[in-house]
Amino acid sequence: MAFGTGTHATTRGCLEFLELAVDRLCGRPFSALDVGTGSGILTIALDKLGVGEIWAIDNDPVALEVARENLIINGATKKIHLTGKSLRALHKKFSLVVANLTAETILELAQDLERKVAPKGFLILSGILWKKEGPVRRRFARRFRTVKRKRAREWATLLLRRK
Hints:
Layout: H1 9-25, E1 31-35, H2 41-48, E2 53-57, H3 61-73, E3 80-83, E4 94-100, H4 103-116, E5 117-129, H5 133-140, E6 144-152, E7 155-162
C-alpha cells in the first residue's frame, strides 16, 4: 500500500546515491531525512549504512503504518523518528536529505528541501521523469552543485551537494 519495494528505478537510484553520499560523509556523525518515506525502504537503508539519526516523514497515514511495520521487521527503530509532520514543520538541518517524489512535488517543496540541507550536505532527488530533470536541476543550481546524475529508462536521479 506504500511506494518503495526496491525494484523501481527511482528507488534503486536513491539507494546507489545514498551509499555514495554516506561514504563521502564517513568519519563524522551525521543525520539524514527521508522525505515521503513511503514503505520506509530508504530509511531502512540509511539505518543499515550506519547513519546516526534519521527522520522519516510522510503525509500518508497508511504509508506511515507500513513504514513502521517495515522498520520493526528490519530492527531499525532505535534512532529513527517516523512522523507525519510536514517538511516545513521540521526545524532541523541534515547532512543528507533524500526525496523520491515526482518532479512537480520536488519543485513545490524546493525551498523547504533547500532549507533542510546543512552546509556541504547532500540532497538526493528522484522520481523525476527524464524530460523534467532539467527544470529540477536548474531550480537547485544556485545553492547546489550536481555531483552525479543517473538515468534508468525514463527516470532520473540526482545527487546534489550544497555549495
